[in-house]
């Protein structure tokens, strides 16, 4: 009798691929020129300094070469990308006031229900602008600010100007410069000293327009001794043209503060996801990243933590699922720039159907960072002979008094583990399913419940017979 091979289902994208008719109020022309950037700036009523910033970033974009490493981006043609799409609505603070087609999209994604059950505030972006925003009154009374970036530029201009693209400068790489020129939408959060936001805030980004880019900017400032959990979700329906995502996240964690940043990225298979995320952590502060990368045709995403203050801490838990036609180049970086800093990176990746999953990471210990500690653990599970998984770690250690560890494993499901579970009365099929679920469990357990359920639904593992 022929032994059946294991079948692992592809990502289930049914509800994510439902698209709406394009009813945008304003669209920029395709391409990237000073005139287009100025048009976007006028459409958004930018202050003069922001208009000048955009044009300077555009100059940097023109002068900066494409990356010569990682996956090929040859299919990206900026002449065919629409960089700004304003939906046919203003931002609302009541779901019932959001246009029906847009509201129905977010209802299918479960955002209003999650807001009612488990969130202290919600922002929902559709194409290039936030269409809905809310925050619980008790947080407002404590001085917490949670709004869209367009509003923050008006109501908190000094704070935005002090921090905007100071941590991630346009000169960092070509797609950060692009972001600086055409950014739109995103979230602004400020948590005052000593305030602990016990219930998470969440922003969800949905790109509906074909051939467009989404360039949201997220700026979060957690002041001294404060605490926050911020959740980010994103998705897009599949089109037969290239879409681009080049968002930017800047996180400022002050002395003794803590921030957890959780995200599930579920872009469609025509999306190039070139996102940039960075945190700077002051004395005794902590940053936790929880990351799930599932969608997109190509991803290049490496959240970076700069441990600036003594005793600062960083933790990263990430899972990547690369299926047929996907090249997901992801990882994490930590810069230990002060004494007694610590970091822990745990990465899990699954590759099937010829998908490519790459972990690319860096640990840097500066000369002044004595007694720094770091642990990196990367595990990859390949489910067939067509797929590929690489681990590309960089360790730049410039002080001797440190503790650094790195472990990487690439393999298939262990026959010994299957045998052990079967010896305890578990069927072969369920044993395999348990192993794969357990493989991603270190990340799933860190996600909020509704996102852990979403992750399991996305992977949608169906096992039968033997791996081989």
Automatic annotation (TrEMBL):
UniProt protein name: Fe-S cluster assembly protein SufB
Highest taxon, organism lineage: Bacteria
Ranges that cross the membrane: none
GO biological process: iron-sulfur cluster assembly
Cross-referenced SUPFAM superfamilies: Stabilizer of iron transporter SufD
Domain named SUF system FeS cluster assembly SufBD core: residues: 205-439
Entries under InterPro entries matching the protein: Fe-S_cluster_assembly_SufBD (IPR055346), SUF_FeS_clus_asmbl_SufB (IPR010231), SUF_FeS_clus_asmbl_SufBD_core (IPR000825), SUF_FeS_clus_asmbl_SufBD_sf (IPR037284), SufBD_N (IPR045595)
Coiled-coil parts of chain: none
Family: Belongs to the iron-sulfur cluster assembly SufBD family.
Short name of one Pfam family: SufBD_N
SUF system FeS cluster assembly SufBD N-terminal domain mapped to chain residues: 44-202
């Amino acid at each position: 009798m022929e032994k059946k091979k294991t079948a692992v289902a592809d990502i289930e994208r049914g509800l994510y691929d439902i698209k709406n008719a394009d009813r945008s109020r304003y669209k920029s022309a395709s391409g990237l020129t000073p005139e287009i950037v100025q048009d976007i700036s006028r459409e958004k009523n930018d202050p003069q300094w922001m208009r000048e910033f955009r044009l300077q970033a555009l100059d940097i974009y023109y002068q900066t070469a494409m990356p010569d490493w990682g996956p090929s981006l040859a299919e990206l043609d900026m002449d065919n990308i629409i960089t700004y799409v304003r939906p046919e609505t203003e931002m609302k603070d009541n779901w019932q006031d959001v246009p029906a087609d847009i509201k129905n999209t977010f209802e299918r994604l479960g955002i209003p229900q999650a807001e009612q059950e488990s969130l202290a505030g919600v922002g929902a972006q559709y194409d290039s602008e936030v269409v809905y925003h809310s925050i619980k009154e008790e947080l407002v009374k404590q001085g917490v600010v949670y709004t869209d970036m367009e509003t923050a530029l008006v109501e908190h201009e000094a704070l935005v100007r002090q921090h905007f693209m100071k941590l991630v400068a346009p000169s960092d790489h070509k797609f950060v410069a692009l972001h600086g020129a055409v950014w739109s939408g995103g979230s602004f959060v400020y948590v005052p000293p000593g305030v602990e936001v016990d219930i998470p805030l969440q922003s969800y980004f949905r790109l509906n327009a074909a051939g467009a880019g989404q360039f949201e900017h997220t700026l979060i400032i957690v002041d001294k001794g404060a605490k926050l959990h911020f959740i980010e979700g994103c998705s897009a329906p599949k089109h037969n043209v290239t879409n681009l995502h080049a968002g930017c996240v800047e996180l400022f964690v002050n002395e003794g503060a803590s921030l957890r940043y959780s995200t599930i990225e579920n872009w469609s298979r025509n999306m190039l996801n070139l996102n940039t995320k960075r945190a700077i952590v002051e004395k005794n502060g902590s940053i936790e990243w929880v990351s799930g990368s599932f969608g997109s045709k190509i991803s290049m995403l490496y959240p970076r933590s700069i441990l600036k203050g003594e005793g600062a801490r960083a933790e990263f838990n990430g899972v990547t699922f690369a299926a047929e036609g996907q090249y997901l180049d992801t990882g994490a970086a930590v810069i230990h720039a002060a004494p007694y800093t610590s970091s822990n990176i745990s990465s899990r990746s699954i590759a099937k159907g010829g998908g490519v999953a790459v972990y690319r990471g860096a640990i840097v210990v500066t000369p002044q960072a004595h007694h720094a500690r770091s642990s990196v653990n990367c595990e990859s599970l390949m489910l067939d002979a067509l797929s590929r998984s690489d681990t590309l770690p960089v360790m730049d250690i410039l002080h001797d008094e440190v503790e650094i560890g790195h472990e990487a494993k690439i393999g298939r499901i262990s026959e010994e583990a299957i045998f052990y579970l079967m010896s305890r009365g578990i069927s072969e099929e369920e044993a395999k399913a348990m192993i794969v679920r357990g493989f991603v469990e270190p990340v799933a357990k860190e996600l909020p419940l509704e996102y852990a359920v979403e992750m399991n639904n996305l992977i949608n593992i169906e096992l039968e017979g033997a791996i081989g």
